[in-house]
# Entry
Amino acid sequence: MKSKSLILVIILMLVFACKDQPKTDVETTEQETETNKNTNSLKGTWELVGFYNYNDNVVVDSFSNNTISRQVKIYTDSKVMWCKLLKTDSIEFFGFGSYDYDDGHLTEVLDFGSAFMNEVIAENKEFNFELELSEDRFEQIELDDDGNKIYSENYVRIE
# Structure
């Protein structure tokens, strides 16, 4: 009987000794930082929902995309691909390349695309935008040579 009690005590001690320890403040802060990075990340699938036109860096006009066409962008860790469904031509428009974003700026460098886009890429393969990013929405804003806002494409996260 003593040996059974001793074995039970040893088992209980092992169970309690192996129990998860509370997280330290450093571990908690690291996890929160990683969560915030993922929350405001471009990684995912986005659908174009509308546009803004600017004058003197102020929105002066906005319109929806749902009646014109459908456009989706997919960002992985380092790659971007977008496609636009046009009712008149099912093989135009798409582009594929790499991207980088930091400190409110987005750069996409396209490697190839549809026939029309390959003509554009032959002239310029790097596209720079101002970026306004939140958890489920982003705006890529085209700037003129003086840094003034011209127009933006506005996306919502769909995955």
About this structure: The CA atoms of residues 8 and 17 lie 14 Å apart. The longest helix spans residues 2-17. The longest strand covers residues 44-55.
